[in-house]
Amino acid sequence: MLFSFPFKRYHVLNISGGIEHPGDIQLHLLVSQIVAWFIVFLCLVKGIRSVGKVVYVSATVPYVLLLALLIRGLMLPGAVEGIKAFIIPRWEKLLTLQAGAESTIPLGWGW
Q1: Helix (H) or strand (E) run with residue 22 in it
Q2: Which of 4, 22, 54, 83 has its Cα between 20 and 30 A from that of 70?
Q3: Residue 6: CA atoms inside 13 Å, Cβ hemisphere, count?
């Protein structure tokens, strides 16, 4: 199926039974579409100068958010141990293949 997620299928798209049943207009989708086109209209009316200002904001905001998430993640308990486990490899763990919760198969030179 094209849209397999139930939330998207039934709440966002509100897919009808077929082409003979067109369904109702989704008010939240209509409003968001109008708002998006209004923002595009304002950018075009104000000219290229305002678009440049929008680019300054939209280019820097993701980095600010990522920095805030990094700081928040570093303040969580166990963050230092997690970073150490990510950076410093434990070779004995890398040389074993865990097939299930109770069995491990050794790999490498221990055969």
Answers
A1: none
A2: 54
A3: 0
Quote the CA–CA distance of 96 and 89 in Å, as a whole number: 13
Question: Do the Cβ atoms of 36 and 43 come closer than 8 Å?
Answer: no
What's the average pLDDT block by block, 10 residues per block, for the chain (111 residues)?
61 75 81 92 77 81 95 93 87 72 56 49
* Rounded Cα–Cα distance for residues 17 and 22 (Å): 8
Contact 14, 7 (CB under 8 A): no
- Cβ within 8 Å of residue 42, ≥6 positions away: 50
The two counts, helices (H) then strands (E), for the chain are 5, 2
CA distance 99 to 90: 18
